[in-house]
UniProtKB/TrEMBL annotation:
Alphabetized GO MF terms: 2 iron, 2 sulfur cluster binding; 4 iron, 4 sulfur cluster binding; iron ion binding
SUPFAM superfamilies cross-referenced by the UniProt entry: HesB-like domain
Biological process according to GO: iron-sulfur cluster assembly
Top-level taxon: Bacteria
InterPro entries: ATAP, ATAP_core_dom, HesB-like_dom_sf
Organism expressing this protein natively: Bradyrhizobium barranii subsp. apii
Domain Core: 2-103
This protein's name: Iron-sulfur cluster assembly accessory protein
Pfam families: Fe-S_biosyn
Length: 106
């Protein structure tokens, strides 16, 4: 369903190891908002919620909110070190358009 590149896995592992709060995985969901109607939301999580699907990518647990599942099928998440804005990027084959920042789509 969702794939994390090696760079994204390393970024999540680094964030988890340096987090002040306990974290066992990365929660990803889609919410209404952003430039194109939907936006990606993600953050470290201590444990999955009852309505999450748990996926494992190279030893990193990813918690996907069930209502977000259809919006994320086939998505590849990468972590890019760019001069202007390092961070996570989303390659989502179900998106029909996305904004220039890459965090919002429709």
């Amino acid at each position: 369903m969702i794939k994390l590149t090696d760079s994204a896995v390393n970024a999540v592992r680094g964030a988890m190891s340096s987090s002040a709060q306990p974290a066992s995985g990365l929660r990803i969901m889609v919410e209404a908002g952003g430039c194109n109607g939907l936006k990606y939301m993600m953050g470290l999580a201590e444990e999955p919620k009852p309505d999450d699907t748990v996926i494992e990518c190279d030893g990193v647990k990813v918690f996907v909110h069930n209502k977000s599942h259809d919006h994320l099928v086939g998505t590849t998440i990468d972590f890019v070190m760019a001069l202007e804005s390092p961070g996570f990027t989303f390659n989502n084959p179900t998106a029909t358009s996305s904004c220039s920042c890459g965090k919002s789509f429709s």
